[in-house]
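Predict structure. Input: CBM1 domain-containing protein, 235 residues.
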Amino acid sequence: MKVAVLLAVLAAAVVARNEPTCAEAFDTCAGNQPCCNGLKCHVFRDGVAQCLEHDPKPKAKDAEESCTNVSVLGDATFCVRGVACGDNGDVCPKKGDVAVGDCVSTLKSYVEKAKCVAPSDAVCQKTPQGPRSCMFGAVQATNSTTNSTLNSTGTISFPNGTSKCSTNWSQCNGQNWPLGVCCEDPKFTCNKKNDYLSLCEPKDFKRENSGDGPENEAGDCDEGRGEAHTDPSQG
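Output follows.
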């Protein structure tokens, strides 16, 4: 009787060995062992293989696409989806994106009523100071401030054609400013407001408020009257 029971156990073991086995949910699935009930064997970066209901990669992708605040150099702060511009990412605001912070009327993206909208696709580029940052306009970042000069009136001049110039009334220089210290409109010039901000303003902006015009006109009139005077001795 004992011999018969022993033979039955051995036979069952042989049959079980020949039948394919499968791994349940969250069990390892290394080698040729399949996953049970339609589960998928997912291999992680560290080499561990595990039976899961679905591939977890889509969830990781969704996490990457969460909204992240990123500041545009010399402009406002926007919220982007993906890995923001920096050491590990290159995502920047796209044209039409609305800023979520730091919106002031002197910025290039300013529209109206404290609202800033990206005028173009920002580009992730390396700044002269080292780290990468989002910038409006596909231009090569250069340390243009080293070539700029500041005169006694606070007006900054910059060699033409060395970098992208700014539009009327927009920022054209400031601390760590990576672009051209110049204005697109030849009738405008880059005037320094403080160490952090310079704006493109009309060249005659200061002259109109200086009062030089009336004084010159008065001088011309006096000179004209002087020429009309006659010498009494000739009367």
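The first strand starts at residue 40 and ends at 43.
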